[in-house]
Specification:
three-stranded antiparallel beta sheet; 138 residues; alpha+beta; five-stranded antiparallel beta sheet; single chain; Jelly Rolls
Length: 138
């Protein structure tokens, strides 16, 4: 069995962002040479997420509205975590959107359903963060 590992780095210019990383993960798969196996893609920071969904701006807006209702950024004083940092809401949003995805690899391609894409979700941006891509298989 072969194994491949790569880190992807992101620095969102805003506090929150959804970035389609499907092409970057596909490039990793091509570099790996693996034709049958699994891809793990996970955020390496507690205030960021990796998830699979549709690349549709209306849906991304709906995610933002929904997340802000469940874990509003302000007032910062509503969270006991906030003190040194003001990112308690980002920790909660990450938990809601998920840490990682696993995608099957068949014939050298990611096995996706219709419209599925991989996204990096940033909830406390304006600094460099990384995503791990780990591919195992033959």
């Amino acid at each position: 069995m072969k194994s491949y590992r790569k880190e992807l780095w992101f620095e969102a210019p805003s506090r929150r962002a959804f970035i389609n990383i499907t092409g970057q993960v596909q490039k990793c798969l091509s570099e790996s040479g693996i034709k049958e196996g699994l891809i793990l893609v996970n955020a390496m920071h507690i205030t960021a997420s990796v998830f699979i969904n549709d690349d549709e701006q209306g849906l991304h807006h709906d995610f933002e509205v929904w997340l802000e209702k469940l874990a509003p950024e302000k007032p910062y004083s509503q969270y006991q975590h906030n003190g040194f940092e003001d990112n308690a809401d980002a920790h909660i949003k990450r938990t809601l959107m998920g840490r990682e995805v696993v995608v099957a690899v068949t014939n050298g391609q990611m096995d996706f359903g219709p419209w599925e894409q991989i996204f990096y979700g940033e909830f406390d941006g304006k600094r460099k963060k990384r995503v791990l891509v780990k591919i195992i298989g033959e």
